[in-house]
Request: fold
Amino acid sequence: TRRSSDLTAIVDVTVTVAPNGNVSNAVATGNDPLVAKCIENQVRNWRFSAPGEVTTIKIPFKFLKQ
Reply:
């Protein structure tokens, strides 16, 4: 049988949002390095509503492998 950790990819992304809403930095960590790097690369292209100041947020992701 497979362990539940083998069936789930858990990734946390710490995102730094610039005052204009662009992502200035993203760092992903988790139990699946390939999934984490893929998410990190995608998040770097996201755009948020302009917060007016540098803002750091943490976004959790959880994927079930199939």
